Each structure stands twice: as C-alpha cells, then as structure tokens.
Amino acid sequence: MELVSIAEIRAAAENIGPVAVRTPVLPCLWADPDRPLWLKPENLQPIGSFKIRGAYTALSRLSEADRACGVVAYSSGNHAQAVAYAARAFGVPAVIVIEATAPAIKVEATRALGAEVVQVPLPERETAAAEIGRERGMTLIPPFDHPDVIAGQGTIGLEIVTDLPDVDLVLVPISGGGLASGIAAAVKALRPSAAVFGVEPEIAADTAAGFAAGERVHLPPEQRARTMADGLRAEPSELTFAHLRKLIDGVVTVTEDEILAAVGTLARRSHLVAEPSGAVTTAAYLNRAADLPAGRTVAVVSGGNIDPALFAKALQD
Amino acid sequence: MELVSIAEIRAAAENIGPVAVRTPVLPCLWADPDRPLWLKPENLQPIGSFKIRGAYTALSRLSEADRACGVVAYSSGNHAQAVAYAARAFGVPAVIVIEATAPAIKVEATRALGAEVVQVPLPERETAAAEIGRERGMTLIPPFDHPDVIAGQGTIGLEIVTDLPDVDLVLVPISGGGLASGIAAAVKALRPSAAVFGVEPEIAADTAAGFAAGERVHLPPEQRARTMADGLRAEPSELTFAHLRKLIDGVVTVTEDEILAAVGTLARRSHLVAEPSGAVTTAAYLNRAADLPAGRTVAVVSGGNIDPALFAKALQD
Q1: Which of A195, B39, B224, B288 is most exposed by smallest CB count within 10 Å?
Q2: How many CB pairs under 8 A join A and B?
Q3: Which of A51, A76, A106, A237 is catalytic?
C-alpha cells in the first residue's frame, strides 16, 4: 500500500495558510529537565482542533467543478466543524450528517459555521451521508481514511521538525489514525532518528492490541465509547493502520484518571484548555516515562473542545 | 523626552528568540463578523506572561561584566519570574525581593527558576532591592520604567503587524504602561493608521484619569489594589506616560464582572487560560464596541497566571 509522502505533506503545508494557525511549540518549564517537553497546541486552531488541516487539504485538492458542488461529511465532533469551516472558506456548500442524539450545542456549532445539518439515527450516519453525496453530487470528506486528509494532518509533523530540528520523541493521540499517520510520515522523512509513539486510552486501546496481534483488532463500539476521550473512539482503517505499522515506534496507553489529571496540568501549568483526547499525550509523558525513549519530547495537544462540567472537574483534582 | 524607536524594538526582536515564544495571532470564530478579532496569546510564554520579553531584553543589553554580577528585581508577580527566567537563561545570579505577605506559591515559583528570594515588608521592597544592588554589585531590572524593557515588550507590536499587516485596532492592558508603550511604538511606526487603545479596570483607572487631566493622576495603592486584575495595579512612570500620551488613541475601562466573564469566554471559546489582567482587552472588545474604532481588532492577552479558585468561578458564570 502506498503511504503518504513528504512531498504531499509539503504541498498541503503550502495550502493551509489561509485557514490553519501555524501553531508554535511551547516549552514547559514544569517538565523533567532530563526529558524537556514542548506542547504542539492544536486546540488553538479556530475550530478548536487539528481537523481543519486535513479537511481543508481534502477540499483544496478537489477539482474546482467538484468542489463547487459542495461536500458532505458525517461526524458529531471536530471533523464536522472542520468540514463546515473549510467549505465556508472556499465558499461552497456543506452538509454534515449528525446523529439524532448529539448534544444541541454541537449541532449549533456546526450550523453556526454555515453548514446544513441533517440528523439521523447513529447507525445510519454513514449511509445517509453517502446517499446525500450521490443525490446532490457532493463529495464525501472522510475523517481520516484518505491520503489528502493524512497529508493535511502531516503538516503538524513538518512544523514540529522545522521548529525543533533535534526533537527525539513525538507523542500523538491515536483514534482513526489519520493524525498519527500524517505526523509520523513527516517526522520519519525529516528526522528518521526521532521516535513517534501513539497514545490511546487504556479502555479503548484497539491499536495497541492491533500492534500486539500484528493486524487490526476490532473492539465493540460500546467498549470504545467508555473512554471520556470522545475523540479517540474510532479505529484505524486499512490505510492508516498500514502507515502506523510502518512508521510509528509503539503505542502506550493511559488511564482515565491520568487523562483527567493531564487536562488539569495543561490548564494550570501551560494555560491551555485541552479536551481529554488532546491531553492523552501529556498523560503519557507524565506517567509512562519508563515505556518511552528519553530526550526532547513533543506532545501533540490535538484539541480543546471539552465539556465545561468535565473541565471544571479536572481543575478540582 | 526620547521615546523608544522601532529600531530598538527590531533589535530586541532579534535577541529574544532563544527564550520567548513567537506567539501567533489566533482568529476568533465567535467574534462579531463586522469587527473580526484575533488574540495575541502571551499567556503561552514559558513563564505565563509577556514579561519575559522585556526582562530578557534588559539583561541582554547589559555589558557582559555587569551581567555576570547578576541582577535584582522587586515583584511578587510576573516580573519576578521573568527576571529569574532571563537570568537563568544567561547563567547569571538573580535576587528577587518579594513582600513577606506574598502567597507561598509565588515565592516557590520564583525559587524554582533558580532565583534567590528575599522577603521584606511590602513598603520596603524597592529600597531593599536597591540596597542589594549596591551591596552585591547587581543591576536592578525595573518592571516597566526603562527603555530596554519597553523595547522588549514592543516586539509584540512588531509581531502583530507582521502577522496582520491590515490590523485596524490593537487593545492593550495598561498598568505601569511598559507593555502599551512598546506595542504602540511598534504599531504606530509600522502602521500609523491603526489605532491603539489601552484598557484598565474601572476601579483602578489612573491612566484614563490621567488622560482626562492631561497629566499623571495618582490613585492610592489601596484603591488600585481593589481590582481582581492583580497585574494592573501599578501606575505609569514619567517615561511610559510620555509614550502613552504621544502614541495611544485612548483608554477604555471595564468592570470587574466584565473581566471575570471575559476569562470565561477565553477559556470556553478560545481554549486559553487567561488571568484577569490578560482578559481586560477581551472584556473591552465584548462590552465597549461603541467607544472603540471598528475593524480588524487584536486583543493582547498578556498573561495566564490566575488563581485556580478565581478561574473556577469564571467558568461557572
């Protein structure tokens, strides 16, 4: 299977300027001096997560004619807002299919970005989106299972190595694997000696299990749904799993308590509001030193869209 | 009186790279579309505030011999950590004079950066620092009343105009006035058509009163101490007031309730932990539109070192 190349990632980086913030790497004075830590704060993107990079890249690579017909996506989370925002930036229509049970606040956030929202029962999301695509001639933008989306997320890896050429270790959350695939493709091309580790919630660790088994392992959705890291409930596709197997050095897992504590640490010590999915890498840094290479470490903070009640709880810990 | 020049600010910008984060400007999707808003998140600096820029610049301009003897400062707040951090970066000793009543957490934070802390009664801080300087041959680094400090803070203005060449309005907190002086010097040199407004707490608005009177107005310290914006309790010096009178377009004030609500907005909508002093500009954007020019606006979020209990309260609002 052909993996995403550094050339594709460089091309994506040249395109995303108008919509994605070029986030800095933030040094952490509170880190262990023997393992200096920088944060890559993707929670500061306009929609609150890295997803804008992949969605915008995917839209930018459509033909002008196809793009003018609009795009469709299914998601209740960060990908929904990313596609809506990217479509608005291009001035083309977007339809987002969201499950009927999603919180009203997520539906409203997507509508506020100018997208049409269609609500269906959860199991029907994918087919409903495909049908809308066929009927209206709209292109489906997948959340991770596409080379253009992976290339877009890979721009984060490019920026990390540009800003910290002597980075030793990059920690990345793993869900569908698009983010980790893209970042690993960039980091391994530009600094092969740096390690890239994925991080998963212990109670939704399908990729860790897949690495142990040597092939993809499927966990029941209701099992994956148990983690508070609601952005980490997907599983890799064939495409992203191929990237991960080839490119990343390992996967570590963190507990729910460790994730919540890391949300608190990021707020108190680095002044960042992170969602649980974005805090897993900091949790791994703080609690899995023995399982990780030493050296100059970057933790990717993938997003900041946290439920206010959960955030308040994290601050109390 | 000679004001700080853009050449001095450019020279400072070339120096601070090793210690200060080059913060981006963050677009706010939640802003009024007719008055687009960007945040300049100085709360993301390693010590949690912009103060590192001025302190490091001041140290960098000492002669090597003077610098080797070390530096001294009096502050219980962000300037204390800034001087300690800058001294550590240069590998020279720092003594920070802190009032005996300061919270232990602030003393510890300063010690953790390698500085020696001397505690004295509040009214004796300044004289104690001067005495230590004389006795030990250490140079006093003032928090705002020095051209080098102003030039360092001015690098923020340089970065704003570089990143947003068509900015129309910059909102800056005013306390001692070093930050506003430096930013205004840079913005007015590079984009004279842009307005720069200062923001003060309504209950500690000495600069607003000074602008109305045409000269500096002194408010009693116990009056200034009432605001929760603990970084905005100082008053301009002759030097900074001269900059402000010449360079800024006006001063607006915000209430304590508006400040606290703005802390909540920054956390919920832009994923930033801001201290009250850093949130006054967002409070002004949200509540003083009628008193401010329209157009592309930047709010400087000067710092993030907020008391956890106060932050929890802001999130509940």
Answers
A1: B288
A2: 73
A3: A51
What number does CATH give the domain A6-46+146-316? 3.40.50.1100
Compute the distance between CA of residue A298 and CA of residue A171 in angstroms, rounded to an integer.
6
Best mutation target among B271, B275, B306, B317 (most A Cβ atoms within 10 Å) is B271
CATH of A52-140, one of 3.40.50.1100, 3.30.1490.180, 3.40.50.720, 3.30.70.1170: 3.40.50.1100
Averaged pLDDT, B177-186: 98
Q: What is the pLDDT of residue B224?
A: 87
Residue B106 annotated among the catalytic residues of the structure? no
Does A6-46+146-316 match A52-140 in CATH topology?
A: yes
Q: What is the mean pLDDT of residues B162-169?
A: 98
DSSP 3-state of B301: strand
Nearest to A241 by CA among A219, A271, A217: A217
Structural domain boundaries in chain B: 6-49+146-316, 52-140
Question: Edge-to-edge strands of the sheet including A169-173?
Answer: A26-27, A37-41, A297-301, A169-173, A195-201, A250-254
pLDDT, position A265 = 98
Closest CA to A247 of A316, A178, A317: A178
Q: What is the pLDDT of residues B198-238, one digit of tens each?
A: 999 999 999 999 999 999 999 998 888 899 999 999 999 99
The CATH architecture that domain B6-49+146-316 belongs to is: 3-Layer(aba) Sandwich (3.40)
